[in-house]
Structures are given as C-alpha cells and as structure tokens.
C-alpha cells in the first residue's frame, strides 16, 4: 500500500469511528476456560482459535461460490509497525483485539474498524534498540474481562477489555541483563496467564511463567533449561549456564487431562562445535534438557507431567517452540500433532509418547531420518568447527516456523506451509557465555542459500495429520512463511508476494482474492 | 483468522513486509523485497460485497 492509500485508510477509520458510536455492542459474555474450550464460530478467543489448536472457523458465508465477491471491509493502520505486523487478532463479541510492534494493543469494532481503545506501553527505547528479536509482537490472550499482553522489556500486562486501562503490570524478566522479553502471545487457562520468554541464544533458562489472571502475581515458573535435577545432568561441565530454551510461542491447554502443552527453543550456542562426540564434548555436552522439547505441564503448579525432546542436543536451531498443538481424536485414540522447525511433524498421544513422525519439506539434511516409532534421530549431522562443505537444510529460518497451520474437521486434513531453503555455515569455537549478558550466542556465521540442485521455494500441503499422506500440494516461487487459517471450505494463505490466495480445499483451484502485501 | 459480527463473516489479515527473516530477503532475492517499504503494516479485514 502506498502512503497516500494509508492516509485514506486513516481517514476512513476516523469516519467509521464516528459512526461506530451508534453501533449497538453485542452483549458481552464472560470469557473463561469453558467458553474458550467450546469455541465459537463468531469469535476467535485464543491464539489458535480454540484450545484444540485447529486454527479453524466453521463460518461458511465466504465459500467457494462467494469468494469472488470478497472485498476490503476496512483497514487499520497501527503506525510504527517496525519489523512488521505479526499478530493474530482475537475477536470476542464483535470486538477485535490485536497488537502491533512495541507491544501496542488495539481494540477495534469488528464490523467497522473503529478504534474503541488503544494502549501503548511505556518502553525503554534504548533497551528495545539493543534487542535482536524485537520489537514485533504476536498477540494477546483474553480471559476474566481482561486482555493480556507480553512486552519486549519483559513485562506481562493485563488491560480491562472494555476500557484498555491497566489492571496490573508484572515484571517477569530482567531484560536489561539478557535483552530478551516477550514477543509471543500469552495463553489464558484456568485463571492462569501463561507466557514463555524469548530466546534460544542467550544464557537465560527460558522460563515459562504462570501468572494469576486476577492479581498479576506469579503462581509458578518452569525453567526449560535444567529445570529439574535430572535435566541438569544432561548439561555436561555445568553448561546449563549457557542457556537457551525459551518457550517463545504460545502452547495450548487440554481440559480433559488438565495439561498445558508448550514447546521450547534450542539451546545456546545454536551451532555446537562438538562434532560426533556431542554427548561428552563441545560447548554444552549432553542432551540439554528441556530444550527443543515439547512439555506437558500442570497449569495449577507448573510441574512437569511428561515431555518429549524432539531434538536431543539440538545443534541446528530447530526449535520446538514453534507451531500449534493440534488436539485430535481418531478411532478412539487421542492425538497431539506438533510441527518442529526442522521440517518434521511429530504425532503424539496425549502423554507425549511418539506415535508417528513425518517430514513436510524435501530438503532436510541435519538428520537422515527420524524413527517414526520412537522419535529417535537417525544419522545425525553434528558439526566440527570450520566451514561446512555442504549447506545445512533447512535454513535457520526453518522448514516451518511459528506461522500456524490449520486442521479442518470436515475434510480431516491438516494444512501446513513448508519452506525449501538452506544456509551455508561456518561453525566457530565459542567461549562459553555462562552469566546473564546482552550477548547473542550463535556459534556460527551463515548465509541463506538455495538447496543443492534446486531453488528456494515454498509450498502449502494438505495432509492426513496422523499418517502424513499428502492429498494436495501447491508450490510457489521465492519464499513464504505465511500462516494458514481455515474458513469454511477454503484455506487462506498469505504470502510475501503481493496477493492473498484462497485455494480450494480439495481441488486446488485458486481464486485471487485481493491485492495485499502480506507477510509475517 | 475469521469471525462474524451481526451475521456477517469477516477475514482479518495482517499485511506488510517485516520480521527477522525478511531482513535476509533483499540481499537474497532482490526485488520486489529490496524496494518494499518497511514499518508500514496494515490490518486488512475482508468481507463479501
């Protein structure tokens, strides 16, 4: 969009704002765990739509026959959206809540876009300027009449849903020392607001916090790096001090088993120089629990119920923090489907026992395969210091990343974006960083490159979520990292290219919806 | 994501160039990323005419 169009948009929003004063608001219903769990086609009450992680809407007004009539209803320009808008809006009772960069929160009339209230937290600009993963924000949580947002300077803030006034403001992270705060959306469940820290690249311990939704007091903290005595033993030479493991994207909640599912980031440094002797040598010898893992936590206590480490001793920066936890029932079995940044989908039972693993991208060479029965990595590729002869695939940006996939219960298919790209890599032998410090600990120099014998591209696939069988796949040039959301029978994919597309659920035909520069 | 108000369905899309990964796009892919404006994200909401 050109600046002139933005000006028109602002003017339009102002005009609609005046009109909105006469709009009768929908009668607000309390937002609690039961309402979020039940879901509602009119609302989008939590990051992935509902706790089931489906990113699915049952609304069917916009469908294969009507999509040709799609047009822009309204726009909102948040201003100062440094490094892009990355928020998933939430909607409750006709009001849309979303965030811009610098942890700014907006409440808008869902029908008109008129601003009901906005909240701009006071931030330490000098600190924000020093941060690597900043200043974007990926959204809010709703519950108990409040809107919850994490800030890039390490606070969790509750705002009154109706007024935007601060209900409480709790400092959780010492962002001055670590230069990490919160960019991911929180999750509300059972009176607790859960949020995970940024960061696999700093000497922090990746905390996940459970905060009382009413008071803002911390109820529990789970350390994803050496959070138990058993876990500490998996970091040789006290290397747990090198840290990592941030749970930087929201997990989900299963009310049946009273379990929080949450993913964690890689350990630091990202790239280890241990070579094949990673269990006994290198920057952080051992499995490095609970990094690059999926956790089952008790939401009342924060205690660990069970876990699976998707990548023991992750030497490639392939987080488990990314991606949705899709809760499915099939043939009497209850499953959890979760993507890993390395380009694999892990299928678990509800106790996180591996039931299947399958790749969704073609260019993977950090392992030869992953055993689908056990989840064991087969043919690991562990680096020694120096320039690597072959590129590492997928790239540091991931075969998949934090951008969500979607499950459609009507087709029984799982829709997910994949990226085909690699990096050239020179691993460096780093000095261990063991004290909290504003120092990014990567352990390599790298550059984005095309896969061997190929080119960089992206794709959207529709699969059986349990077996991984591909029903439909669409490819596009250049790359991607958009998200997918199901609306009735069509998937909306938003890409960096200047279109928004709506491919049909099963036939793969495409209707151009509108000219939109979309990214994430 | 999608929602409804007063019986009408909407689709909301955050639009605009950005993100850490996109910092690499211009040197890797050139145009159109090279000249894409930064810091000007927009929330675009669609409905049927």
Describe this structure in words.
The complex is a heterodimer of chains A (520) and B (49). By secondary structure, chain A is mainly beta. Chain A is built from 5 helices and 35 strands. The N terminus and C terminus of chain A are likely disordered. A 3-stranded antiparallel beta sheet of chain B has the order 1-2-3, with no helix packed on it. Chain B is mainly beta. Chain B is elongated, with a radius of gyration of 15 Å. Chains A and B meet through α1, β2 and β4 of A and β1, β2, α1 and β3 of B. β2 of chain A pairs antiparallel with β3 of chain B.
Brief account:
The complex is a heterodimer of chains A (520) and B (49). In chain A, strand 34 and strand 35 (510-514) form a beta hairpin.
Low-pLDDT regions of chain A: 1-26, 487-520
User: What strand order characterises the main sheet of chain B?
Assistant: 1-2-3
Backbone shape of chain A: globular
Q: How confident is the prediction overall: mean pLDDT of chain A?
A: 87
Category by helix and strand content of chain B: mainly beta
Order of helices and strands of chain B: EEHE
Question: What summary fits the major beta sheet of chain B?
Answer: 3 strands, antiparallel
Question: Strand order within the widest sheet of chain A?
Answer: 1-32-33-34-35
Structural Rg of chain B: 15 Å
The SS-based structural class of chain A is: mainly beta
Provide the helix percentage of chain B: 10-25%
Beta-strand residue fraction of chain A: 25-35%
Q: Examine the coordinates and then state which fold CATH places here, giving the name of the CATH topology of the domain at 1-185 in chain A.
A: Thrombin, subunit H
How many runs of DSSP E, i.e. beta strands of chain B? 3
Quaternary structure: heterodimer
The major beta sheet of chain A can be summarized as: 5 strands, mixed
Beta-strand residue percentage of chain B: 35-45%
């Amino acid at each position: 969009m050109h600046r002139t169009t933005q000006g028109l948009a602002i003017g339009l929003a102002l005009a609609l704002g005046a009109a909105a004063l006469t709009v009768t608001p929908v009668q607000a219903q309390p937002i609690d765990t039961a309402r979020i769990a039940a879901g509602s086609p009119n609302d989008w009450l939590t990051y992935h739509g509902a706790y089931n992680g489906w990113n699915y809407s049952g609304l069917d007004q916009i469908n294969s026959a009507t999509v040709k009539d799609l047009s822009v209803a309204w726009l909102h320009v948040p201003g100062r959206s440094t490094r892009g808008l990355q928020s998933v809006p939430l909607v409750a009772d006709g009001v849309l809540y979303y965030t811009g960069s610098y942890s700014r929160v907006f409440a808008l009339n869902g029908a008109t876009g008129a601003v009901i209230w906005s909240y701009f937290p006071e931030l330490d600009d000098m600190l924000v300027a020093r941060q690597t993963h900043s200043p974007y924000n990926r959204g809010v949580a709703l519950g108990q009449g409040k809107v919850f947002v994490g800030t890039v300077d390490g606070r969790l803030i509750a705002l009154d849903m109706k007024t935007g006034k601060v209900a409480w403001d709790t400092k959780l992270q010492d962002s001055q020392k670590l230069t990490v705060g919160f960019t991911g959306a929180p999750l509300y469940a059972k009176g607790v607001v859960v949020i995970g820290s940024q960061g696999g690249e700093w000497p922090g311990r990746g905390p996940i916090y459970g905060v009382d939704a009413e008071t803002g007091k911390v109820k529990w903290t789970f350390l994803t790096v050496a959070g138990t005595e058993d876990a500490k033993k998996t970091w040789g030479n006290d290397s747990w001090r090198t840290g990592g493991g941030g749970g930087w994207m929201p997990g989900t909640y299963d009310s049946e088993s009273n379990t929080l599912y949450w993913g964690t980031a890689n350990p630091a440094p990202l790239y280890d120089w241990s070579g094949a002797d990673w269990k006994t040598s290198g920057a952080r010898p051992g499995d490095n629990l609970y990094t690059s893992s999926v956790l089952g936590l008790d939401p009342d206590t924060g205690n660990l119920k069970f876990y699976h480490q998707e990548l023991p001793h992750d030497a490639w920066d392939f987080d488990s923090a990314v991606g949705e936890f899709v809760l499915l029932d099939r043939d009497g079995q209850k499953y959890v489907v979760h993507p890993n940044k390395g380009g694999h989908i892990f299928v678990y039972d509800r106790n996180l026992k591996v039931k299947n693993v399958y790749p969704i991208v073609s260019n993977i060479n950090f392992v030869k395969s992953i055993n689908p029965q056990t989840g064991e990595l087969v043919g690991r590729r562990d680096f020694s210091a120096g320039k690597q002869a072959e590129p590492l695939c997928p790239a540091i940006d991931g075969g998949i990343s934090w951008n969500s996939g979607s499950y459609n219960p009507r087709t029984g298919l799982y829709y997910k974006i994949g990226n085909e790209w690699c990096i050239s890599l020179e691993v460096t032998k780093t000095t261990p960083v063991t004290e909290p410090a504003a120092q990014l600990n990567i352990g390599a120099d790298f550059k984005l490159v095309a896969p061997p014998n190929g080119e960089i591209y992206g794709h959207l696939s529709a699969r059986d979520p349990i077996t991984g069988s591909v029903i439909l796949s669409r490819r596009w040039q250049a790359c991607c990292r958009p998200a997918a959301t199901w609306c009735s029978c069509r998937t909306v994919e938003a890409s960096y290219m200047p279109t928004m597309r709506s491919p049909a659920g099963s036939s793969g035909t495409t209707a151009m919806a509108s000219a939109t520069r979309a990214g994430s | 994501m999608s929602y409804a108000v007063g019986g009408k369905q909407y689709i909301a899309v955050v639009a605009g160039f950005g993100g850490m990964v996109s910092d690499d796009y211009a040197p890797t892919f050139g145009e159109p990323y090279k000249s894409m404006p930064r810091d000007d994200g927009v929330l675009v909401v669609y409905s049927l005419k």
